[in-house]
């Protein structure tokens, strides 16, 4: 179960990412229209953009762990028409507006943000690791620590 947390304190994208990673899991990752609708309900009370976790490194999510996503989820996008356009060649981060659409935005701008957390009894972390890999146990430990999960 995803839990979303609106953070009204204005921060630039990097500060927002650090805050979300410290307090929750990361800046919000939007995987499907259902997520957009939930976030739109949260943001509908505000008339300004809010940071989400998408950034220009090939427009990837801040939560970059591929094992977190099902097929197609990491590629979900909901841009305004004509976006991303990198206006003035300095828009490398993404903000979501209360209209459900996204806009590339200057990362130095200070705006609110939306963080996400993953919790619940029925949350299963998809772990895809080659067991023959020498880094299996260190990776397993890292994944288990990051989600406070138990191996079943």
Characterise this structure.
With 152 residues, the chain is an alpha+beta fold. The chain folds into two domains: 2-119, Mannose-Binding Protein A, subunit A (Mannose-Binding Protein A, Chain A); 120-152, no CATH class. The chain has three helices and seven strands, in the order E-H-E-H-E-E-E-E-E-H. It has helices at residues 13-23, 33-43, 136-147, and strands at 2-11, 26-27, 50-55, 60-61, 91-96, 102-106, 111-118. The strands form two sheets. It has a four-stranded antiparallel beta sheet with strand order 4-3-5-6, with helices on one face. Strands 1-7-2 form a three-stranded antiparallel beta sheet, with helices on both faces. The chain is globular.
**What's the structural domain tally?**
2
Low-confidence stretches: 120-134, 148-152
Task: Give the % helix.
Answer: 10-25%
Q: What radius of gyration results from the CA coordinates?
A: 16 Å
Mean pLDDT: 76
End-to-end distance: 18 Å
**Beta-strand content bin:** 25-35%
Domain C-type lectin: 1-116
Protein name: C-type lectin domain-containing protein
Keywords: Disulfide bond
InterPro entries: C-type_lectin-like, C-type_lectin-like/link_sf, C-type_lectin_CS, CTDL_fold
